[in-house]
Amino acid sequence: MLNSLSGRFLILTTVFVMLAEVLIFLPSVARFRVDYLDARLERAQIASLALLADDMIDPELEQELLDNAGVYNVALQRDATRELMLSSPMPGAVDASFDLRDATPWVLVRDALARLIDPQDRLIRVLGYPQRDAGELIEVTMDSAPLRAAMIEYGLRILMLSAVISVITAVLLFMAVRRFLVAPIKGVVNHMKRFADAPEDARSIIRPTAGVKELREAEEALQSLETQLSQSLRQKERLAQLGGAVARVSHDLRNILTSAQLFTDRIEMSEDPAVKRLAPKLVGSITRAVSLCETTLAFGKAEEPAPVLTQFNLAALVNEVLEAERLAIGDHDVSLSEDIPATMQIRGDPEQLYRVIANLVRNARQAIIGNGEPGEISVSARAAESEWVIRVTDTGPGLPAKARDHLFQPFQGGARKGGAGLGLAIVAELVRNHGGSLSLTGSDSHGTCFEVRLPMGDLT
Asked: Transmembrane region positions (predicted)?
């Protein structure tokens, strides 16, 4: 109970209400003291009026008037003349005087506190203004013990009332907190438990209903989080199924392409000049298709084969990529260009770097054709101080924001509508396996540029 939010709120409320009552306790007691002394002055003034009505008052009646007023003597100042109106023998000397006429609140609180903590019965003098302008000053002498007893009695009543108010206030706030805060929070916790049991079930996602602004914001944030998590789980399940399907398809396709590869030997033996010219490209395409199936199977195992590093001519490799792309472009208004030194030799895995450049060029070509506008794709390379830099630029429409946010994540960074988003993820992994980096250096309505950096390392 005490460890719960509502239980601690109950305790804190009780403590704070009691603290507030304590802060007003002394001013209340000081006000009571002033009222008590004013009442004594008023009674003393009434008693003195009886004397003014009859100068020859009986001593016994005079004492009775003083006893009724609770004072020993009464002095009244009228017309700048102070006169002792009623008097009786005093038990001792006056210990202190208190002037109520111009006392500040701080002085009244201080005097009240001093009277509460002083248990001795002392003789005090009190000065004040007469009621109804009956003079300039009235002064009485009285004992302090009855005043202190009355103040203590009043203070106890105040404390008891404060305790009752604190308890009632705390209980009401306790009930309100349980109704408007604790209950909705428990509802959120129950929603979280149900969602944890079945995160794929969209029915377990919380629906914001809280009326409290902060709690509703928490519910909305939780709803967004649960929605994204549920979608991610469903996507991963579909991707797992897709991965199994791709692995099976790649396996069968590899067998088919391997069989087709056996027939290319006969094609190479043909005497037809066109066949002789195209046969090497067909053989190379089938070989790459077989390699692609094998690497797709490897990707399904969350790994790419380690690159086999050799030195090769980059210009020849890029030219081969662009020749294949020209066949795919067909009648579309897309031009291809390259700016690579003819003798530039780099070290890497030719098959994997062919896939890297081919993927980047293919993506650019598909973006330009999908845009329906003429465009240009350019591949350039240069040797920096310790690395080779290959740039693939295009004049296409640029990448969408979603693609830029998840650019190199499998199945999430698709650069075109309907794309799976696997190509750039494979490219990035192939480049990383070479110890290099792939980055998007620019993408807007004027085009896109990817940059591949490969370390030179030790060329000897």
From this structure: 6-26, 158-177
Half-sphere exposure of 368 (CA within 13 A, CB side): 26
Residues forming beta bridges with residue 151, ordered by sequence position: none
Render pLDDT for 119-177 as a digit per residue (tens, 0 to 9).
999 999 999 988 877 678 889 999 999 999 999 999 888 888 877 887 787 788 778 87
| Of the ranges 13-22, 57-66, 292-301, 393-402, the best mean pLDDT one | 393-402
Find, among 160, 136, 156, the residue nearest to 75 by Cα: 136
Query: Largest Cα–Cα distance of the chain, in whole Å?
Result: 161
Specify the CATH number for the domain of residue 380: 3.30.565.10
Sign of CA dihedral 24, 97, 70, 103: negative
* Residues 219, 134 share a domain: no
pLDDT in tens, 263-275: 566 666 666 776 6
Report if residue 180 sits inside a domain: no
Give 402-407's long-range contacts (Cβ < 8 A, gap of 24+). Answer: 404/440, 404/443, 407/440
Is residue 412's pLDDT more than 60? no
Domain that holds residue 339: 305-455
217 lies in the same domain as 124? no
pTM, to two decimals: 0.43
Q: Which of residues 303, 334, 363 is at a domain's end?
A: 303
Residue 87 falls within a domain, yes or no?
Answer: yes
Same domain, 16 and 165: yes
Q: What is the pLDDT of residues 57-80, one digit of tens each?
A: 566 776 777 777 788 888 888 777
In SS3 terms, 412-449 reads as CCCCCCCCCCCHHHHHHHHHHHCCCEEEEEEEECCEEE
Within-domain flag for 178: no
Stated length of the chain: 460
Pair (145, 282) in one structural domain: no
Kindly provide the residue ranges of all beta strands, DSSP E only, lying in 156-225, ordered along the sequence. none
The helix/strand/coil state of 383 is strand
Radius of gyration of the chain (CA): 49
Strands 334-339 and 375-383: parallel
Amino acid identity at 399: L
Token pair 């991707």 in the structure block, residue:
239
Residue where one domain finishes, among candidates 284, 303, 322: 303
